[in-house]
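== Folding the chain ==

***
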Amino acid sequence: MHVVCAIITDAAGRVLAARRPHDKALPGKWEFPGGKVETDEEPIEALEREILEELGCCIRVDAPLPPVEHDYPHGRVVLQPYRATLTAGFPECREHAELRWVAAADIDGLDWAEADVPLLPVLKQGKAAARKKRNR
């Protein structure tokens, strides 16, 4: 299953986390919002569509991060994450149990879906690098 997700960052440098509903696969786990890439759909188009459908807002897809492959009991997931910026609207909780803006220091405090876990060190390193650059 080919899946895309958005690492949406706000002006304070926090990232948007979405908690999966309890009536779906991986109930209660946190993830970065996104969804499945449909047949004959480009990954960036799929991500923009999923964010509009699930969160009711628009994003600009900025840069890809390294893909993650994970084997769940229900199948193999190939997750393509992208950094993204809100361009219109504000995220609404339409399909998730909860949405939360999370600071890098608090990322480890959530129970993440296994496919999303490899992205967490990348986000924390990126924040540390930005701090280092500001302090120069």
Observations:
- The longest strand covers residues 75-88.
- Residues 120-134 form the longest helix (15 residues).
- The chain has two helices and eight strands.
